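Hi everyone, sorry if this is the wrong subforum. Our group has a chain we'd like a structural model of before ordering constructs, and none of us has done structure prediction before. Sequence below.
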Amino acid sequence: MSEKPVLLDVTGEVATVTLNRPAARNAISGAMLSELRSTMAELGGNEDIGAIVLTGTDPAFCAGLDLKELSSNQNLLDDGNRDVPPGWPWKPPPQPIIGAVNGATITGGLEFALHCDFLVASERAVFADTHARVGVLPAWGLSVRLPQRVGFAMARRMSFTGDFVDARRALEAGLVTQVVAHEDLLPMAQGLAATIAANHRPAVLALHQSYERIEADISEGAVALELEAAGTWRRSGQTDGIGDRVPGVISRGRGQANL
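Answer:
Right subforum, don't worry. Here is the predicted structure as tokens:
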């Protein structure tokens, strides 16, 4: 029997969601994405949960879309789920999400991370946007959210080169808020979540909603432009050769990230 692609642990008022395909470096399969969306929706409707931690089963946070599955099923790029807002991988819950980045965080995995309210990282964390290596364009808001975190020049450097950024550089760029020893990462993230959950719950949720509404107001037009570019790219047939590029993309990524 295969393992569940997403694990959920609830301790007190803190929920920890763990991406759980370690043999595939937690790459995003259709089953994982569906399970993650269901889990986030479940937590969003649970008034007993005050904060969420999102992490991955070692050795990676998330290596992005499963390229082997993507090469034969491009519906991974657009599954038609109308419950998920444009530019989001899941329907956003009302609670804050802390990303506990424990390892490689690549492309779709980086987009997952960018949809957390803030990130803390293990010393082993590395980050990359390899859309240009694979031959696809982002559609979960990366070209909007990444420059908001690290600035336009750094975002363009990451996207155009596909090169990996280590935890120290990510901290300097503002992508993560703190870097800690690997074994301290999850306890620290869960401690931050517990601190959030212990605050006045209605105030936290209202403040979180305010942040989300402001960001949406700023970004709505930009997200629409990203989706337009991604759709045009797909309709042009440029994604048809993904399968041929998969071995090279995986080999180059492993060489840079020590995967």
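For your construct planning: Residues 224 and 247 are 32 Å apart (CA to CA). The radius of gyration is 17 Å.
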